Amino acid sequence: MKRGSCVAREHILLVEDEEDIRELVQLYLLKEGYRVSVAETGEQAFELAFKERFDLYVLDIMLPDVSGMELCQRIRAQSNAIILFLTCKRESDDIIAGLEIGADDYVIKPFNPKQLVARITGHLRRASLASASGAAVRKDCLPWRYGRLEMDFRNYELKVDGVVVPMYVKERQLLMFFIENPNQVFSVGQLYERIWGWDRESDERTVMVHVSNLRKKIEEYPGNPRYLVTVRGFGYKFCVK
């Protein structure tokens, strides 16, 4: 939706206990036309998340009552919306842990609020484009099937051995990209650019964790994948023979 429209854009929940950061980010998001709700604690955030539908969550990891990690898990139990972490933690283990429990991306403090808003806008735009493209191009298509996998392009429902498997936004976008580009090798940088789309150096951890999460959902033996394989020294390939 274009700026200046009388209709508000997507709804974002910002969870941040530091007042200065919370007010600054909220101001930048409001300037871009987003609807913004704010929370200072994890409990406030979960109460809002239970009552309203949000398109994207921005979660501080270090909250005064519960951790952002716990809040992410609680939100993921009821929503597939985009989740972005704000974190002071630079250690790989902490970042990977956040991605493994369902976060789509993260931003390390201190950050430029303009860049944060650009990141948020990019995530929402890609999710919207993927949905619109699928509805327009594939609405009359039969489900895609290969081996134990079946993808219904009309509602983006994945079945593995006939059982519906829930996926988060980035997992779905990643799988759709591989299905549309079978047997091609893509580097980590190429995947990051196509799926996350942020103009910075590719984040190897983000891609690797999402590939690992996706393998756990589609592979019978994730440690010895049949579909989403590693091409050593180059990247990843979705094998369809």
TrEMBL record:
The modification 4-aspartylphosphate is found at D60. GO terms for biological process: regulation of DNA-templated transcription. PROSITE patterns: OMPR_PHOB (PS51755), RESPONSE_REGULATORY (PS50110). Residues 141-240 form the OmpR/PhoB-type domain. Residues 141-240 bind DNA. The keyword Phosphoprotein applies. The keyword Lipid metabolism does not apply. It is found in: Cytoplasm. CDD domains: REC_OmpR (cd17574), trans_reg_C (cd00383). Residues 11-124 form the Response regulatory domain. GO terms for cellular component: cytosol; protein-DNA complex. Keywords: DNA-binding, Phosphoprotein, Transcription, Transcription regulation, Two-component regulatory system. GO terms for molecular function: phosphorelay response regulator activity; transcription cis-regulatory region binding. It comes from the Bacteria. Pfam families: Response_reg, Trans_reg_C. Gene3D superfamilies: 3.40.50.2300, Winged helix-like DNA-binding domain superfamily/Winged helix DNA-binding domain. Transmembrane segments: none annotated. This is Response regulator transcription factor. It comes from Paenibacillus thalictri.
